[in-house]
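Subject: Interface between my chains keeps coming out wrong

I've been trying for a while to get a sensible model of this assembly. When I model each chain on its own everything looks fine, but I need the whole thing in one frame so I can look at the contacts. Pasting all components below, labels as-is. Any help appreciated, I'm running out of ideas.
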Amino acid sequence: DQQVKQNSPSLSVQEGRISILNCDYTNSMFDYFLWYKKYPAEGPTFLISISSIKDKNEDGRFTVFLNKSAKHLSLHIVPSQPGDSAVYFCAASASPGTGANNLFFGTGTRLTVIP
Amino acid sequence: EAQVTQNPRYLITVTGKKLTVTCSQNMNHEYMSWYRQDPGLGLRQIYYSMNVEVTDKGDVPEGYKVSRKEKRNFPLILESPSPNQTSLYFCASSRSKNEKLFFGSGTQLSVL
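Reply #2:
Try treating it as a single job with all components included. I did that and got this:
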């Protein structure tokens, strides 16, 4: 059963506009969330993370929002650039001592930014 | 340059022929793990290692073995590969479990 879900397999956005990628999780023990970006023929690379004690984390054009009550997080990219075209994976983990040792990944959302 | 190196990039083999995919990191990371990526399933963890001689199963460990004899190396071993192990494999490392992972470039394995 998928504990981290990305329900949109793909998203197309015009250059300069906002891209919003969504992620839902089911395990209330998750307390650390990350976004990774993956280009073809390369491994995923870390983009941004957020701890459950925060509801927002910003890094340049990238902002991650966390809504713990809804078990939902989103990644906002503003403004979107053609170089942002990639597959984005959401991931979640639980702290040591909770019995979970894995980093659980979603299925990914392919973002295409149209010039 | 800090990196995770896995080899080979591409591998075609036949059912039952033992193979090893190597993984090495030069960042002195304690935590290493293996993932497989399949369409519609995302990245699923196979095995992970918290340190030398400490390994544990992830989500999908069946049919795989690992070893961590040195801090920098974490090979993935398929003793008797089967077609359902055809997948894209990624090795990753991090300073500790909850820190960002650095991924290798991937190994595309086809088992005929």
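Reply #3:
Confirming on my end. The interface with chain B takes residues 2, 4, 6, 32, 34, 36, 41-46, 49, 89, 91, 93, 95-96, 101-108 of chain A (CB under 8 Å).
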